[in-house]
Amino acid sequence: MKVPIVKAGERPRAYIISRKTKETEISLNLSLDGGEVKVSTGIGFFDHMLTALAFYGGFGLELTAKGDLHVDGHHTVEDVGIVLGQAISQALGDRKGVCRFASAYIPMDEALCFTALDLSNRPFLVFDAAMPQERIGDYDACLTEEFMRALAVNSGMTLHMKALYGNNAHHITEALFKSLGVALKHAVKVEGDGVVSTKGVL
Questions:
Q1: Beta-bridge mates of residue 16
Q2: pLDDT greater than 70 at residue 5
Q3: Taking 60 as the threshold, does the pLDDT of residue 123 lie above it?
Q4: How far apart are CA 139 and CA 77, in angstroms?
Q5: All structural domains of the chain
């Protein structure tokens, strides 16, 4: 990944992490300020969603995951959420100057989805998105909530997501990932040099 040029005295907002368990092996290179996007998890639809998330978030993301897909995709999807969340948290550092709050509505055909988030260091997930179909290719639609929970907990993000309507699980899921990317793009922007909190710390 080509890391963006950083001025003298500035901290690059990037993080490289790997995680290996008996169920998954994951390597991830994240830059909050842009770069190449290359994703390979063994689950085609999940690759598509992560690529969309990074693209609309303006992130550089190189991710390789090998998991026990002979069981199902649960461990792979959840563990990617864990690792990506940890990388986001580390790349944010002390979170000084970041906008912190952001939200986005994203339509996709008949579906409309909403994300609101706070990079608060107080992890919480509210997920309200019924999936009309159980499967999207080789991806279990219920795993979107598992990914978002792992991401929120490990990044220190308060995350609220809602599908207002929709009758196609593919469209709903893609709108959720895209709305998360758009919201994150704004939330991680640096617009000052102080912590956006009345407490003085996040």
A1: 29
A2: no
A3: yes
A4: 9
A5: 14-187 (3.30.230.40)
